[in-house]
C-alpha cells in the first residue's frame, strides 16, 4: 500500500499548512466542502462509529497528507464522513490516532486535530480507553474528562504562544453529555507516555496528584484543539482497573473486550451528544 511521506518530521515544515493540505484531500474525496464536528475513536470505541450516523464517504487515511495507518490493534485506518441526522451537517470520524509512543513526534500526534479544524470543524470529541483508579468504575464504564494532567513532558504548541487551558474540556459540552446520560461520572485524565502500562507506584502517584484515569493519549490533542479554537469534549472508557487497583494483569485484549461490551451504550451516547452539539 502506498503511504504519504512523513511530512511532519521536518522542522521547517509548517504543520498547519500540512493540515490544510489534508483537509483539502478529505474535502475532495468525501464531496463535503466542510465538516462540523470531529470524533477521534480511541481503544474500545471503534464499534461506536456505526451508531453515530450514516457513513456517506470513507477515506484511507494513509493516503492523506501527514497521516499514517493504524498502529494499534482494534483501531481503523479509515476516516469517515458521517451524516448527523437530517440536519445537513457532517461529522468527521477518525478511526485511529497517532500515539506519542509511536515516536513520530508531537506534530503527528495532533495532526488529526489540526486537520479537523482546517476541515471546518468547531467541535472535537476525543475518546480513549483507559485504566480507572476508582474501583466503582468497572470495565465498560464511560467517564467524562473534566481536566487532565499531561505527564509526557511535551506540548504541541511551538514558540511563545500562551494558550489558556482553564476550561480545556468545554463545560457546556459536558453538560450536554450529562443530559444524554445522567449517570455519567467525570474525572481527571492523566496521560503517561506509554506504550508500557503504568506501574502500581505510578498509578498511586497519579492518584495523589489528583488523577482518576490513566492512559496514553488525549491530553496533547486537547491542548492542540484549544490552540485551534475548538470546543473539546473528552470521554474515557474505563477498560480495566489500573495497575495496583486490581490484582488482574493488564492486557490490550481486555481493553478490546471491554469496548465490545460497552459499544451500544457508548455509541448511543456519542450519537445523541453529536446530534445536540
UniProtKB/TrEMBL annotation:
<dbReference type="GO" id="GO:0009116">
    <property type="term" value="P:nucleoside metabolic process"/>
</dbReference>
<dbReference type="InterPro" id="IPR035994">
    <property type="entry name" value="Nucleoside_phosphorylase_sf"/>
</dbReference>
<dbReference type="Pfam" id="PF01048">
    <property type="entry name" value="PNP_UDP_1"/>
</dbReference>
<dbReference type="GO" id="GO:0004731">
    <property type="term" value="F:purine-nucleoside phosphorylase activity"/>
</dbReference>
<dbReference type="InterPro" id="IPR011269">
    <property type="entry name" value="PUNP"/>
</dbReference>
<feature type="binding site">
    <location>
        <position position="217"/>
    </location>
    <ligand>
        <name>phosphate</name>
    </ligand>
</feature>
<comment type="pathway">
    <text>Purine metabolism; purine nucleoside salvage.</text>
</comment>
<feature type="binding site">
    <location>
        <position position="129"/>
    </location>
    <ligand>
        <name>phosphate</name>
    </ligand>
</feature>
<feature type="binding site">
    <location>
        <position position="240"/>
    </location>
    <ligand>
        <name>a purine D-ribonucleoside</name>
    </ligand>
</feature>
<feature type="binding site">
    <location>
        <position position="198"/>
    </location>
    <ligand>
        <name>a purine D-ribonucleoside</name>
    </ligand>
</feature>
<feature type="binding site">
    <location>
        <position position="75"/>
    </location>
    <ligand>
        <name>phosphate</name>
    </ligand>
</feature>
<comment type="function">
    <text>The purine nucleoside phosphorylases catalyze the phosphorolytic breakdown of the N-glycosidic bond in the beta-(deoxy)ribonucleoside molecules, with the formation of the corresponding free purine bases and pentose-1-phosphate. Cleaves guanosine, inosine, 2'-deoxyguanosine and 2'-deoxyinosine.</text>
</comment>
<dbReference type="InterPro" id="IPR011268">
    <property type="entry name" value="Purine_phosphorylase"/>
</dbReference>
<feature type="domain" description="Nucleoside phosphorylase">
    <location>
        <begin position="37"/>
        <end position="274"/>
    </location>
</feature>
<comment type="subunit">
    <text>Homotrimer.</text>
</comment>
<keyword id="KW-0808">Transferase</keyword>
<comment type="similarity">
    <text>Belongs to the PNP/MTAP phosphorylase family.</text>
</comment>
<feature type="binding site">
    <location>
        <begin position="97"/>
        <end position="99"/>
    </location>
    <ligand>
        <name>phosphate</name>
    </ligand>
</feature>
<dbReference type="GO" id="GO:0005737">
    <property type="term" value="C:cytoplasm"/>
</dbReference>
<dbReference type="InterPro" id="IPR000845">
    <property type="entry name" value="Nucleoside_phosphorylase_d"/>
</dbReference>
<protein>
    <recommendedName>
        <fullName>Purine nucleoside phosphorylase</fullName>
        <ecNumber>2.4.2.1</ecNumber>
    </recommendedName>
</protein>
<feature type="binding site">
    <location>
        <position position="43"/>
    </location>
    <ligand>
        <name>phosphate</name>
    </ligand>
</feature>
<keyword id="KW-0328">Glycosyltransferase</keyword>
Amino acid at each position: 500500500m502506498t503511504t504519504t511521506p512523513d511530512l511532519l518530521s521536518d522542522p521547517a515544515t509548517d504543520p498547519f499548512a500540512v493540515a490544510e493540505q489534508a483537509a483539502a484531500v478529505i474535502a475532495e474525496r468525501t464531496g463535503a466542502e466542510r465538516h462540523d464536528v470531529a470524533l477521534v475513536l480511541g481503544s474500545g470505541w471503534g464499534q461506536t462509529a456505526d451508531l453515530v450516523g450514516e457513513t456517506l464517504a470513507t477515506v484511507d487515511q494513509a493516503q492523506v497528507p501527514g497521516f499514517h495507518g493504524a498502529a494499534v490493534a482494534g483501531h481503523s485506518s479509515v476516516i469517515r464522513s458521517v451524516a448527523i441526522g437530517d440536519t445537513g451537517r457532517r461529522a468527521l470520524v477518525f478511526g485511529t490516532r497517532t500515539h506519542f509512543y509511536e515516536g513520530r513526534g508531537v506534530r503527528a500526534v495532533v495532526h488529526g486535530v489540526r486537520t479537523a479544524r482546517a476541515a471546518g470543524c468547531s467541535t472535537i470529541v476525543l475518546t480513549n480507553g483507559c485504566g480507572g483508579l476508582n474501583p466503582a468504575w468497572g470495565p465498560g464504564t464511560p467517564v467524562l474528562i473534566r481536566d487532565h494532567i499531561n505527564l509526557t513532558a511535551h506540548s504541541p504548541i511551538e514558540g511563545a504562544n500562551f494558550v489558556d487551558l482553564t476550561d480545556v474540556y468545554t463545560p457546556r459540552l459536558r453538560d450536554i453529555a450529562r443530559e444524554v446520560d445522567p449517570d455519567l461520572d467525570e474525572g481527571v485524565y492523566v496521560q503517561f507516555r506509554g506504550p508500557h502500562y503504568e506501574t502500581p507506584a505510578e498509578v498511586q502517584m497519579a492518584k495523589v496528584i489528583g488523577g482518576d484515569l490513566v492512559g496514553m493519549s488525549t491530553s496533547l490533542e486537547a491542548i492542540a484543539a484549544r490552540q485551534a479554537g475548538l470546543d473539546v469534549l473528552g470521554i474515557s472508557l474505563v477498560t480495566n482497573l489500573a495497575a495496583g487497583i486490581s490484582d488482574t494483569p493488564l492486557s490490550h485484549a481486555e481493553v478490546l473486550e471491554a469496548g465490545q461490551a460497552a459499544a451500544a451504550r457508548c455509541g448511543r451516547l456519542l450519537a445523541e451528544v453529536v446530534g445536540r452539539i
